[in-house]
Design goal:
Helices cover about 55% and strands about 15% of the residues. Helix 12 packs antiparallel against helix 14. The protein is of the alpha+beta class. A hairpin with a 6-residue loop joins strand 3 and strand 4. It catalyses: ATP + protein L-histidine = ADP + protein N-phospho-L-histidine.
Protein backbone atom coordinates (compact mmCIF):
# COMPACT_ATOMS: atom_id res chain seq x y z
CA UNK A 1 0.00 0.00 0.00
CA UNK A 2 1.38 3.41 -1.06
CA UNK A 3 -0.47 5.67 1.39
CA UNK A 4 2.07 5.47 4.20
CA UNK A 5 4.88 6.22 1.66
CA UNK A 6 2.94 9.11 0.08
CA UNK A 7 2.27 10.66 3.50
CA UNK A 8 4.82 9.35 5.85
CA UNK A 9 3.73 8.94 9.37
CA UNK A 10 6.39 9.85 11.92
CA UNK A 11 7.61 6.70 13.57
CA UNK A 12 6.92 6.31 17.23
CA UNK A 13 9.76 7.39 19.50
CA UNK A 14 12.14 4.63 20.40
CA UNK A 15 11.46 3.05 23.74
CA UNK A 16 13.69 4.31 26.53
CA UNK A 17 16.58 2.10 27.49
CA UNK A 18 15.77 -0.46 30.15
CA UNK A 19 16.38 0.93 33.62
CA UNK A 20 19.22 -0.50 35.60
CA UNK A 21 18.44 -3.32 37.96
CA UNK A 22 16.78 -2.33 41.25
CA UNK A 23 16.75 1.44 40.67
CA UNK A 24 14.33 1.92 43.54
CA UNK A 25 16.54 0.09 45.92
CA UNK A 26 19.51 2.28 45.03
CA UNK A 27 17.44 5.47 45.27
CA UNK A 28 15.43 4.63 48.36
CA UNK A 29 18.08 2.99 50.48
CA UNK A 30 20.32 6.05 50.92
CA UNK A 31 17.28 8.21 51.75
CA UNK A 32 15.30 5.87 53.97
CA UNK A 33 18.20 4.43 55.91
CA UNK A 34 19.51 7.75 57.22
CA UNK A 35 15.93 8.83 58.00
CA UNK A 36 15.34 5.72 60.06
CA UNK A 37 18.68 6.09 61.73
CA UNK A 38 18.04 9.72 62.58
CA UNK A 39 14.63 8.96 64.02
CA UNK A 40 16.03 6.11 66.01
CA UNK A 41 18.87 8.25 67.34
CA UNK A 42 16.77 11.34 68.08
CA UNK A 43 13.70 9.43 69.30
CA UNK A 44 11.32 11.62 67.30
CA UNK A 45 10.06 9.07 64.79
CA UNK A 46 7.38 7.39 66.99
CA UNK A 47 6.13 10.75 68.26
CA UNK A 48 5.84 12.10 64.71
CA UNK A 49 3.81 9.00 63.73
CA UNK A 50 1.70 9.06 66.87
CA UNK A 51 0.79 12.75 66.57
CA UNK A 52 -1.43 12.38 63.46
CA UNK A 53 -3.00 9.21 64.90
CA UNK A 54 -3.75 10.96 68.19
CA UNK A 55 -5.21 13.94 66.35
CA UNK A 56 -7.35 11.64 64.22
CA UNK A 57 -8.56 9.73 67.30
CA UNK A 58 -9.37 13.01 69.06
CA UNK A 59 -11.29 14.25 66.03
CA UNK A 60 -13.24 10.99 65.88
CA UNK A 61 -14.12 11.23 69.58
CA UNK A 62 -15.19 14.82 69.09
CA UNK A 63 -17.50 13.87 66.22
CA UNK A 64 -18.97 11.05 68.26
CA UNK A 65 -19.53 13.36 71.21
CA UNK A 66 -21.28 15.94 69.02
CA UNK A 67 -23.37 13.24 67.36
CA UNK A 68 -24.32 11.85 70.78
CA UNK A 69 -25.58 15.30 71.76
CA UNK A 70 -27.93 15.58 68.78
CA UNK A 71 -31.62 14.93 69.66
CA UNK A 72 -33.09 11.67 68.43
CA UNK A 73 -35.62 13.47 66.21
CA UNK A 74 -32.85 15.41 64.46
CA UNK A 75 -30.81 12.23 64.07
CA UNK A 76 -33.61 10.29 62.45
CA UNK A 77 -34.63 13.18 60.19
CA UNK A 78 -31.00 13.68 59.21
CA UNK A 79 -30.55 9.99 58.43
CA UNK A 80 -33.79 9.88 56.43
CA UNK A 81 -32.86 13.03 54.50
CA UNK A 82 -29.35 11.72 53.83
CA UNK A 83 -30.65 8.40 52.51
CA UNK A 84 -33.23 10.21 50.40
CA UNK A 85 -30.57 12.55 49.01
CA UNK A 86 -28.27 9.63 48.21
CA UNK A 87 -31.13 7.84 46.49
CA UNK A 88 -32.07 10.93 44.47
CA UNK A 89 -28.44 11.56 43.48
CA UNK A 90 -27.99 7.94 42.43
CA UNK A 91 -31.26 8.01 40.47
CA UNK A 92 -30.32 11.35 38.85
CA UNK A 93 -26.86 10.14 37.85
CA UNK A 94 -28.31 6.92 36.47
CA UNK A 95 -31.06 8.74 34.57
CA UNK A 96 -28.60 11.31 33.17
CA UNK A 97 -26.17 8.59 32.11
CA UNK A 98 -28.88 6.57 30.41
CA UNK A 99 -30.23 9.66 28.66
CA UNK A 100 -26.76 10.66 27.50
CA UNK A 101 -26.05 7.17 26.18
CA UNK A 102 -29.42 7.02 24.45
CA UNK A 103 -28.88 10.37 22.71
CA UNK A 104 -25.33 9.44 21.76
CA UNK A 105 -26.64 6.16 20.35
CA UNK A 106 -29.17 8.06 18.24
CA UNK A 107 -26.40 10.31 16.90
CA UNK A 108 -24.24 7.26 16.22
CA UNK A 109 -27.06 5.60 14.29
CA UNK A 110 -27.45 8.69 12.14
CA UNK A 111 -23.68 8.86 11.58
CA UNK A 112 -23.49 5.19 10.61
CA UNK A 113 -26.34 5.53 8.16
CA UNK A 114 -25.28 8.83 6.62
CA UNK A 115 -21.57 8.12 6.90
CA UNK A 116 -21.86 4.83 5.05
CA UNK A 117 -23.87 6.52 2.33
CA UNK A 118 -21.35 9.35 2.05
CA UNK A 119 -18.47 6.85 1.92
CA UNK A 120 -20.15 5.07 -0.94
CA UNK A 121 -20.71 8.38 -2.74
CA UNK A 122 -17.27 9.80 -2.02
CA UNK A 123 -15.65 8.52 -5.23
CA UNK A 124 -18.54 9.29 -7.59
CA UNK A 125 -20.07 12.52 -6.29
CA UNK A 126 -18.42 15.86 -6.61
CA UNK A 127 -17.89 17.65 -3.34
CA UNK A 128 -20.38 20.30 -2.45
CA UNK A 129 -23.48 18.57 -3.85
CA UNK A 130 -26.41 17.18 -1.80
CA UNK A 131 -25.03 18.58 1.41
CA UNK A 132 -26.70 17.60 4.69
CA UNK A 133 -27.77 20.48 6.84
CA UNK A 134 -25.92 19.74 10.15
CA UNK A 135 -23.23 17.33 8.95
CA UNK A 136 -19.63 18.21 8.43
CA UNK A 137 -17.76 16.08 5.88
CA UNK A 138 -14.07 16.06 5.07
CA UNK A 139 -12.18 14.23 2.35
CA UNK A 140 -8.48 13.60 2.87
CA UNK A 141 -6.27 12.04 0.23
CA UNK A 142 -3.20 9.96 0.83
CA UNK A 143 -1.00 12.89 -0.16
CA UNK A 144 -2.45 14.91 2.71
CA UNK A 145 -4.76 17.11 0.70
CA UNK A 146 -7.91 17.97 2.66
CA UNK A 147 -11.15 19.13 1.16
CA UNK A 148 -14.43 19.95 2.90
CA UNK A 149 -17.10 17.88 1.24
CA UNK A 150 -20.01 19.55 3.00
CA UNK A 151 -20.53 21.72 6.06
CA UNK A 152 -23.37 23.10 8.18
CA UNK A 153 -24.66 26.59 7.82
CA UNK A 154 -22.28 29.41 8.73
CA UNK A 155 -24.19 30.26 11.90
CA UNK A 156 -23.90 26.61 12.97
CA UNK A 157 -20.17 26.61 12.33
CA UNK A 158 -19.88 29.86 14.25
CA UNK A 159 -21.72 28.35 17.21
CA UNK A 160 -20.15 24.88 17.16
CA UNK A 161 -16.82 25.43 15.40
CA UNK A 162 -15.27 22.81 13.12
CA UNK A 163 -14.41 19.28 14.21
CA UNK A 164 -10.76 18.43 14.72
CA UNK A 165 -10.38 15.08 12.97
CA UNK A 166 -7.34 12.99 13.77
CA UNK A 167 -4.86 12.31 10.98
CA UNK A 168 -5.59 8.76 9.84
CA UNK A 169 -4.36 6.66 6.96
CA UNK A 170 -6.74 4.63 4.85
CA UNK A 171 -5.62 1.52 6.67
CA UNK A 172 -6.31 3.10 10.03
CA UNK A 173 -9.65 4.38 8.75
CA UNK A 174 -10.53 0.85 7.61
CA UNK A 175 -9.78 -0.42 11.10
CA UNK A 176 -12.12 2.17 12.66
CA UNK A 177 -14.76 2.06 9.94
CA UNK A 178 -18.31 2.19 11.33
CA UNK A 179 -17.16 2.97 14.88
CA UNK A 180 -18.26 6.47 15.96
CA UNK A 181 -16.01 8.41 18.29
CA UNK A 182 -15.93 11.85 19.85
CA UNK A 183 -13.57 14.60 18.67
CA UNK A 184 -12.93 18.10 19.92
CA UNK A 185 -13.89 21.30 18.18
CA UNK A 186 -12.11 24.44 17.15
CA UNK A 187 -14.44 26.21 19.55
CA UNK A 188 -13.66 25.66 23.18
CA UNK A 189 -16.20 23.56 25.10
CA UNK A 190 -17.84 22.06 22.00
CA UNK A 191 -17.56 18.47 20.83
CA UNK A 192 -18.46 16.52 17.69
CA UNK A 193 -19.33 12.91 17.11
CA UNK A 194 -17.39 11.57 14.11
CA UNK A 195 -17.10 8.47 11.95
CA UNK A 196 -14.46 7.63 9.31
CA UNK A 197 -14.38 5.32 6.30
CA UNK A 198 -11.67 4.49 3.81
CA UNK A 199 -12.33 5.71 0.25
CA UNK A 200 -10.65 5.94 -3.14
CA UNK A 201 -10.38 8.87 -5.47
CA UNK A 202 -11.28 8.74 -9.16
CA UNK A 203 -7.63 8.39 -10.08
CA UNK A 204 -7.28 5.38 -7.75
CA UNK A 205 -5.61 7.01 -4.74
CA UNK A 206 -6.48 5.99 -1.19
CA UNK A 207 -8.42 8.53 0.83
CA UNK A 208 -10.30 8.94 4.08
CA UNK A 209 -13.83 10.23 4.43
CA UNK A 210 -14.76 11.72 7.86
CA UNK A 211 -18.30 12.75 8.78
CA UNK A 212 -19.27 14.49 12.04
CA UNK A 213 -22.32 15.78 13.84
CA UNK A 214 -22.24 18.39 16.64
CA UNK A 215 -23.13 17.16 20.17
CA UNK A 216 -24.47 20.51 21.32
CA UNK A 217 -28.08 19.31 21.21
CA UNK A 218 -27.16 16.25 23.26
CA UNK A 219 -25.33 18.38 25.81
CA UNK A 220 -28.19 20.86 25.98
CA UNK A 221 -30.71 18.07 26.51
CA UNK A 222 -28.59 16.42 29.22
CA UNK A 223 -28.01 19.78 30.93
CA UNK A 224 -31.70 20.61 30.87
CA UNK A 225 -32.48 17.14 32.21
CA UNK A 226 -29.92 17.61 34.99
CA UNK A 227 -31.49 20.93 35.94
CA UNK A 228 -34.94 19.35 36.10
CA UNK A 229 -33.59 16.47 38.19
CA UNK A 230 -31.79 18.82 40.59
CA UNK A 231 -34.85 21.05 41.03
CA UNK A 232 -37.23 18.15 41.48
CA UNK A 233 -34.73 16.43 43.77
CA UNK A 234 -34.49 19.49 46.02
CA UNK A 235 -38.29 19.70 46.19
CA UNK A 236 -38.57 15.99 46.92
CA UNK A 237 -35.82 16.24 49.53
CA UNK A 238 -37.52 19.18 51.25
CA UNK A 239 -40.92 17.48 51.23
CA UNK A 240 -39.34 14.22 52.39
CA UNK A 241 -37.51 15.97 55.25
CA UNK A 242 -40.68 17.73 56.41
CA UNK A 243 -42.74 14.56 56.09
CA UNK A 244 -40.06 12.53 57.83
CA UNK A 245 -39.89 15.06 60.67
CA UNK A 246 -43.66 14.90 61.10
CA UNK A 247 -43.65 11.10 61.00
CA UNK A 248 -40.71 10.83 63.42
CA UNK A 249 -42.26 13.26 65.89
CA UNK A 250 -45.56 11.41 65.69
CA UNK A 251 -43.81 8.08 66.20
CA UNK A 252 -41.81 9.43 69.13
CA UNK A 253 -44.84 11.00 70.81
CA UNK A 254 -45.18 7.98 73.16
CA UNK A 255 -41.57 8.57 74.24
CA UNK A 256 -42.41 12.16 75.14
CA UNK A 257 -45.38 10.86 77.11
CA UNK A 258 -43.04 8.44 78.88
CA UNK A 259 -40.71 11.37 79.63
CA UNK A 260 -43.61 13.40 81.04
CA UNK A 261 -44.73 10.45 83.14
CA UNK A 262 -41.22 9.88 84.45
CA UNK A 263 -40.87 13.55 85.41
CA UNK A 264 -44.20 13.51 87.26
CA UNK A 265 -43.25 10.23 88.96
CA UNK A 266 -39.88 11.67 90.01
CA UNK A 267 -41.69 14.72 91.39
CA UNK A 268 -43.54 12.44 93.82
CA UNK A 269 -46.76 11.50 92.01
CA UNK A 270 -46.36 7.73 92.22
CA UNK A 271 -49.78 7.14 90.67
CA UNK A 272 -48.55 8.22 87.23
CA UNK A 273 -48.45 5.52 84.56
CA UNK A 274 -47.40 5.43 80.92
CA UNK A 275 -50.36 5.46 78.49
CA UNK A 276 -50.95 1.94 77.23
CA UNK A 277 -50.23 0.97 73.65
CA UNK A 278 -50.46 -2.32 71.75
CA UNK A 279 -47.77 -4.66 72.99
CA UNK A 280 -47.12 -5.73 69.41
CA UNK A 281 -45.14 -2.49 69.01
CA UNK A 282 -41.78 -1.63 70.54
CA UNK A 283 -43.20 1.41 72.31
CA UNK A 284 -46.08 -0.68 73.67
CA UNK A 285 -43.72 -3.26 75.12
CA UNK A 286 -41.54 -0.49 76.57
CA UNK A 287 -44.58 1.17 78.14
CA UNK A 288 -45.78 -2.11 79.64
CA UNK A 289 -42.34 -2.79 81.09
CA UNK A 290 -42.12 0.73 82.50
CA UNK A 291 -45.59 0.49 84.02
CA UNK A 292 -44.59 -2.73 85.73
CA UNK A 293 -41.42 -1.09 87.03
CA UNK A 294 -43.32 1.98 88.23
CA UNK A 295 -45.85 -0.22 90.00
CA UNK A 296 -43.05 -2.06 91.79
CA UNK A 297 -41.38 1.23 92.71
CA UNK A 298 -44.67 2.59 94.04
CA UNK A 299 -45.20 -0.58 96.03
CA UNK A 300 -41.63 -0.42 97.35
CA UNK A 301 -42.10 3.21 98.38
CA UNK A 302 -45.39 2.33 100.05
CA UNK A 303 -43.74 -0.53 101.90
CA UNK A 304 -40.85 1.69 102.92
CA UNK A 305 -43.20 4.44 104.04
CA UNK A 306 -45.25 1.98 106.06
CA UNK A 307 -42.07 0.49 107.48
CA UNK A 308 -40.80 3.92 108.46
CA UNK A 309 -44.15 4.73 110.06
CA UNK A 310 -44.07 1.44 111.95
CA UNK A 311 -40.49 2.10 112.99
CA UNK A 312 -41.33 5.57 114.26
CA UNK A 313 -44.32 4.19 116.13
CA UNK A 314 -42.19 1.34 117.42
CA UNK A 315 -39.49 3.70 118.67
CA UNK A 316 -42.08 5.98 120.26
CA UNK A 317 -43.85 3.07 121.95
CA UNK A 318 -40.59 1.51 123.11
CA UNK A 319 -39.44 4.85 124.47
CA UNK A 320 -42.74 5.28 126.29
CA UNK A 321 -42.62 1.78 127.73
CA UNK A 322 -39.02 2.17 128.86
CA UNK A 323 -39.59 5.65 130.24
CA UNK A 324 -41.95 4.45 133.00
CA UNK A 325 -39.61 1.92 134.69
CA UNK A 326 -36.63 4.21 134.16
CA UNK A 327 -38.50 7.11 135.78
CA UNK A 328 -39.46 4.86 138.65
CA UNK A 329 -35.90 3.72 139.24
CA UNK A 330 -34.60 7.27 138.93
CA UNK A 331 -37.26 8.64 141.32
CA UNK A 332 -36.59 6.07 144.04
CA UNK A 333 -32.87 6.62 143.55
CA UNK A 334 -33.28 10.33 144.15
CA UNK A 335 -35.35 9.63 147.26
CA UNK A 336 -32.60 7.40 148.59
CA UNK A 337 -29.92 10.01 147.77
CA UNK A 338 -31.92 12.75 149.53
CA UNK A 339 -32.21 10.59 152.63
CA UNK A 340 -35.99 10.36 152.54
CA UNK A 341 -35.90 6.57 153.08
CA UNK A 342 -35.10 6.31 156.75
CA UNK A 343 -37.18 3.38 157.88
CA UNK A 344 -36.14 -0.19 156.99
CA UNK A 345 -39.66 -0.91 155.77
CA UNK A 346 -39.48 2.06 153.37
CA UNK A 347 -36.10 0.99 152.08
CA UNK A 348 -37.27 -2.59 151.52
CA UNK A 349 -40.40 -1.40 149.70
CA UNK A 350 -38.31 0.93 147.54
CA UNK A 351 -35.84 -1.80 146.61
CA UNK A 352 -38.73 -4.11 145.75
CA UNK A 353 -40.25 -1.47 143.48
CA UNK A 354 -36.89 -0.78 141.82
CA UNK A 355 -36.42 -4.50 141.25
CA UNK A 356 -39.93 -4.77 139.82
CA UNK A 357 -39.31 -1.89 137.42
CA UNK A 358 -35.96 -3.33 136.38
CA UNK A 359 -37.59 -6.72 135.82
CA UNK A 360 -40.28 -5.12 133.69
CA UNK A 361 -37.68 -3.20 131.73
CA UNK A 362 -35.58 -6.34 131.28
CA UNK A 363 -38.60 -8.25 130.01
CA UNK A 364 -39.36 -5.48 127.53
CA UNK A 365 -35.78 -5.42 126.30
CA UNK A 366 -35.80 -9.21 125.95
CA UNK A 367 -39.02 -9.06 123.93
CA UNK A 368 -37.53 -6.38 121.67
CA UNK A 369 -34.39 -8.48 121.22
CA UNK A 370 -36.49 -11.52 120.33
CA UNK A 371 -38.42 -9.53 117.72
CA UNK A 372 -35.20 -8.12 116.27
CA UNK A 373 -33.73 -11.60 115.91
CA UNK A 374 -36.91 -12.88 114.29
CA UNK A 375 -36.89 -9.94 111.88
CA UNK A 376 -33.35 -10.85 110.86
CA UNK A 377 -34.63 -14.25 109.67
CA UNK A 378 -31.90 -16.10 111.47
CA UNK A 379 -32.02 -19.85 110.87
CA UNK A 380 -33.75 -21.71 113.68
CA UNK A 381 -33.33 -25.25 114.81
CA UNK A 382 -35.81 -27.58 113.19
CA UNK A 383 -36.79 -30.84 114.86
CA UNK A 384 -40.04 -32.75 115.24
CA UNK A 385 -42.12 -31.07 117.96
CA UNK A 386 -45.25 -32.62 119.45
CA UNK A 387 -47.86 -29.88 119.86
CA UNK A 388 -49.90 -32.10 122.15
CA UNK A 389 -47.05 -32.15 124.68
CA UNK A 390 -46.72 -28.36 124.50
CA UNK A 391 -50.46 -27.92 125.02
CA UNK A 392 -50.48 -30.31 127.99
CA UNK A 393 -47.61 -28.41 129.60
CA UNK A 394 -49.45 -25.13 129.01
CA UNK A 395 -52.57 -26.52 130.71
CA UNK A 396 -50.48 -27.45 133.74
CA UNK A 397 -48.85 -24.01 133.81
CA UNK A 398 -52.21 -22.28 133.51
CA UNK A 399 -53.65 -24.34 136.36
CA UNK A 400 -50.66 -23.35 138.48
CA UNK A 401 -51.10 -19.67 137.65
CA UNK A 402 -54.84 -19.57 138.38
CA UNK A 403 -56.24 -22.66 140.14
CA UNK A 404 -59.74 -21.17 140.00
CA UNK A 405 -59.90 -21.50 136.21
CA UNK A 406 -61.39 -24.57 134.63
CA UNK A 407 -58.76 -25.63 132.06
CA UNK A 408 -59.11 -28.51 129.60
CA UNK A 409 -57.06 -30.09 126.80
CA UNK A 410 -59.37 -31.07 123.92
CA UNK A 411 -59.07 -32.60 120.47
CA UNK A 412 -59.46 -30.13 117.63
CA UNK A 413 -62.61 -31.82 116.34
CA UNK A 414 -65.37 -33.01 118.62
CA UNK A 415 -65.36 -36.78 118.92
CA UNK A 416 -61.84 -37.16 117.52
CA UNK A 417 -59.21 -39.07 119.44
CA UNK A 418 -56.21 -37.46 121.05
CA UNK A 419 -52.69 -38.28 120.01
CA UNK A 420 -49.36 -36.79 118.96
CA UNK A 421 -49.47 -33.82 116.57
CA UNK A 422 -45.96 -33.47 115.20
CA UNK A 423 -44.68 -30.46 113.29
CA UNK A 424 -41.13 -29.38 112.39
CA UNK A 425 -39.80 -26.40 114.30
CA UNK A 426 -37.90 -24.94 117.20
CA UNK A 427 -39.40 -26.38 120.39
CA UNK A 428 -38.31 -23.46 122.57
CA UNK A 429 -39.89 -20.92 120.22
CA UNK A 430 -43.12 -22.90 119.90
CA UNK A 431 -43.30 -23.19 123.69
CA UNK A 432 -42.98 -19.42 123.82
CA UNK A 433 -45.93 -19.12 121.42
CA UNK A 434 -48.20 -21.26 123.61
CA UNK A 435 -46.95 -19.57 126.80
CA UNK A 436 -47.65 -16.09 125.41
CA UNK A 437 -51.16 -17.10 124.37
CA UNK A 438 -51.91 -18.60 127.77
CA UNK A 439 -50.41 -15.59 129.57
CA UNK A 440 -52.49 -13.28 127.40
CA UNK A 441 -55.64 -15.13 128.48
CA UNK A 442 -54.68 -14.85 132.15
CA UNK A 443 -53.91 -11.16 131.79
CA UNK A 444 -57.00 -10.05 129.87
CA UNK A 445 -59.82 -12.27 131.14
CA UNK A 446 -61.47 -12.22 134.56
CA UNK A 447 -60.33 -14.73 137.14
CA UNK A 448 -62.13 -18.06 136.92
CA UNK A 449 -62.86 -17.71 133.16
CA UNK A 450 -62.78 -21.21 131.56
CA UNK A 451 -59.95 -21.87 129.09
CA UNK A 452 -59.65 -24.67 126.56
CA UNK A 453 -56.63 -25.68 124.49
CA UNK A 454 -57.45 -27.78 121.41
CA UNK A 455 -54.83 -29.64 119.35
CA UNK A 456 -55.25 -31.61 116.14
CA UNK A 457 -54.41 -32.17 112.49
CA UNK A 458 -56.11 -30.68 109.43
CA UNK A 459 -55.81 -31.54 105.75
CA UNK A 460 -56.05 -29.05 102.91
CA UNK A 461 -57.63 -29.68 99.52
CA UNK A 462 -54.20 -30.26 97.95
CA UNK A 463 -53.41 -32.99 100.48
CA UNK A 464 -51.03 -30.99 102.67
CA UNK A 465 -51.40 -31.50 106.43
CA UNK A 466 -50.97 -28.97 109.20
CA UNK A 467 -50.88 -29.05 112.98
CA UNK A 468 -53.33 -26.70 114.73
CA UNK A 469 -53.35 -25.29 118.25
CA UNK A 470 -56.35 -23.30 119.45
CA UNK A 471 -56.45 -21.37 122.73
CA UNK A 472 -60.10 -20.66 123.53
CA UNK A 473 -61.33 -18.44 126.33
CA UNK A 474 -64.87 -17.57 127.35
CA UNK A 475 -64.15 -14.02 128.47
CA UNK A 476 -65.50 -10.72 127.14
CA UNK A 477 -63.85 -11.20 123.77
CA UNK A 478 -62.17 -8.65 121.46
CA UNK A 479 -64.00 -6.07 119.41
CA UNK A 480 -63.68 -6.79 115.64
CA UNK A 481 -62.09 -3.38 115.06
CA UNK A 482 -59.20 -4.42 117.31
CA UNK A 483 -58.96 -8.02 116.14
CA UNK A 484 -57.01 -7.14 112.99
CA UNK A 485 -54.38 -5.17 114.94
CA UNK A 486 -53.69 -7.24 118.00
CA UNK A 487 -50.60 -8.73 116.33
CA UNK A 488 -49.04 -5.29 115.79
CA UNK A 489 -46.17 -4.32 118.03
CA UNK A 490 -47.08 -2.27 121.12
CA UNK A 491 -50.74 -2.43 120.19
CA UNK A 492 -53.10 -2.96 123.11
CA UNK A 493 -56.86 -3.03 123.16
CA UNK A 494 -56.71 -0.98 126.36
CA UNK A 495 -55.08 2.31 125.41
CA UNK A 496 -54.07 2.92 129.02
CA UNK A 497 -50.39 2.63 129.77
CA UNK A 498 -50.84 1.60 133.40
CA UNK A 499 -49.19 -1.54 134.73
CA UNK A 500 -52.54 -2.99 135.74
CA UNK A 501 -53.80 -3.16 132.15
CA UNK A 502 -51.24 -5.65 130.93
CA UNK A 503 -47.83 -5.80 129.36
CA UNK A 504 -46.18 -3.65 126.71
CA UNK A 505 -48.18 -5.06 123.82
CA UNK A 506 -45.41 -7.28 122.38
CA UNK A 507 -46.65 -10.74 123.34
CA UNK A 508 -48.97 -11.24 120.36
CA UNK A 509 -46.42 -9.62 118.03
CA UNK A 510 -43.85 -12.19 119.14
CA UNK A 511 -46.40 -14.96 118.54
CA UNK A 512 -47.04 -13.72 114.99
CA UNK A 513 -43.30 -13.41 114.26
CA UNK A 514 -42.48 -16.93 115.50
CA UNK A 515 -45.39 -18.49 113.61
CA UNK A 516 -44.38 -16.64 110.44
CA UNK A 517 -40.81 -17.89 110.85
CA UNK A 518 -42.23 -21.43 110.88
CA UNK A 519 -44.20 -20.73 107.64
CA UNK A 520 -47.43 -20.91 109.60
CA UNK A 521 -50.46 -18.72 110.18
CA UNK A 522 -52.09 -17.19 113.22
CA UNK A 523 -55.50 -15.58 113.50
CA UNK A 524 -58.36 -14.62 115.81
CA UNK A 525 -61.85 -16.08 115.84
CA UNK A 526 -64.93 -15.62 117.98
CA UNK A 527 -65.46 -18.42 120.49
CA UNK A 528 -68.94 -19.91 120.27
CA UNK A 529 -70.87 -18.61 123.25
CA UNK A 530 -68.55 -15.61 123.73
CA UNK A 531 -64.85 -15.10 124.06
CA UNK A 532 -61.82 -15.20 121.79
CA UNK A 533 -60.07 -18.09 120.07
CA UNK A 534 -56.50 -17.75 118.83
CA UNK A 535 -55.75 -20.33 116.11
CA UNK A 536 -52.17 -21.24 115.22
CA UNK A 537 -51.59 -23.38 112.12
CA UNK A 538 -48.16 -24.93 111.42
CA UNK A 539 -47.09 -27.20 108.51
CA UNK A 540 -46.85 -30.84 109.65
CA UNK A 541 -44.06 -33.31 108.97
CA UNK A 542 -44.74 -36.24 106.68
CA UNK A 543 -44.16 -38.79 109.43
CA UNK A 544 -43.72 -38.49 113.17
CA UNK A 545 -41.01 -40.04 115.31
CA UNK A 546 -40.38 -43.71 115.21
CA UNK A 547 -43.20 -45.70 116.71
CA UNK A 548 -46.16 -43.63 115.54
CA UNK A 549 -47.49 -41.75 112.51
CA UNK A 550 -48.96 -38.26 112.53
CA UNK A 551 -52.18 -39.68 111.09
CA UNK A 552 -52.87 -41.17 114.53
Amino acid sequence: MTTPSARPVPPPPPPPPPPPASPVARVVEPVVEPALTASDENGTGPDDDATPLAAQAGSTRGLRARWAGVPLTARLVGIISSLLAIGLIAAGVLAGTLLYRTLIQQVDDKLVTEGLWLANQAGTTEPGRNLPTDYYGQFTTASGETQVMFAPRPDTLKAYGTPQFPELTATQAAERAGEPFTVSSSRSGERWRAIVYPARTTDGQDAVVAVALPLDDVQDTVTAMAGVLVASGLVILLVGALTGRWAVRRSLRPLREIETTAEAFAAGDFSQRVPTAPTSTEVGRLGAALNGMLAQIEQAFAVRTASEARMRRFVADASHELRTPLATIRGYGELYRMGALREPEQLADTMQRIESSATRMGGLVQDLLSLARLDERRPMRSAPVDLTVLAADAVSDLHALDPTRRTRLLPLLDGAGSGPVVVPGDEARLRQVVANLVGNVVQHTPAGTPVEIAVGMTSAADGTRAGVVEVRDHGPGIDPQHAARVFERFYRVDASRGRDSGGAGLGMAIVAAIVDAHAGQVGLEQTPGGGTTVRVTLPAVAHGPAGYDDAS
